[in-house]
């Protein structure tokens, strides 16, 4: 009888780290109104931090701030800004200083993404993603660095695993057990057997590579000033907008997922836990690093090698691709 796959449980940061770990500290988070960055912000607040969440949709930010405060008992300031516009970020920083008096931690998490082949991405669409992800990170650093220096704080930049070992998002092979039982291809059919590049993600891969480089340089330049900078690179995280759009319904984070050594998909709590650690004194000797939080999938090499079917036949993944002409 074959052994049952062991599924690594999802831990809650409050069961591992002290509840008042970040008491008296202030977090500034771009993209904190929803998704992964909201989860990161909530975790910091659960451990005592006050927070400013930044985004373009003020109504969403205000609702999120109310919910986070109700859940954690900590103050949360919703501030409208566009990371592509430095002046709005500077205003958000000024409001944070006026409200809380300091900034200790910064999460650069604003991002934009869609699926499209190189031939289908317009110059404007490519530029927009770089402006949000790469330039947005740069602008956020510029707007906050004075205050993070003063507090000898730290940065976390949210990247991705798309440009590391080239995850193949839309695997299809006639003999694949997955393909035999499913007509529609989804991100759950991830096959990490490719070693360079992720199809339909040229814009995001380029933008996130820039984010990684920015973090490394920031760590080197600001280290002598007491500032640390690291990257968290999430793998597939269940329950997020992107995963919900690309996975079958009724597929949760708790199901056995043989694509990962941990036996499950990622959860926002996994990213939150990494955030708490990297911002904590326990990580004081860690800077300039990229931490993939992907269940170890980057190290796998599948027995199936479906490439180049879905590149040669775009119609097989047409339902997921947005042409940006």
TrEMBL record:
Q: Which top EC class applies here? A: oxidoreductase
Q: What GO annotations for molecular function exist for this entry?
A: 2,4-dienoyl-CoA reductase (NADPH) activity
E.C. numbers: 1.3.1.124
Its Gene Ontology cellular component terms are: peroxisome
Which reaction is this enzyme known to catalyze? a (2E,4Z)-dienoyl-CoA + NADPH + H(+) = a 4,5-saturated-(3E)-enoyl-CoA + NADP(+); a (2E,4E)-dienoyl-CoA + NADPH + H(+) = a 4,5-saturated-(3E)-enoyl-CoA + NADP(+)
Q: Which organism is it from?
A: Coprinellus micaceus
Keywords recorded for this protein, A-Z: NADP, Oxidoreductase
GO BP term, pick one: fatty acid catabolic process
Q: Name one Pfam family in it.
A: adh_short_C2
Coiled-coil annotation reads none
**What is this protein's name?**
2,4-dienoyl-CoA reductase [(3E)-enoyl-CoA-producing]
Q: Which domain of life is it from?
A: Eukaryota
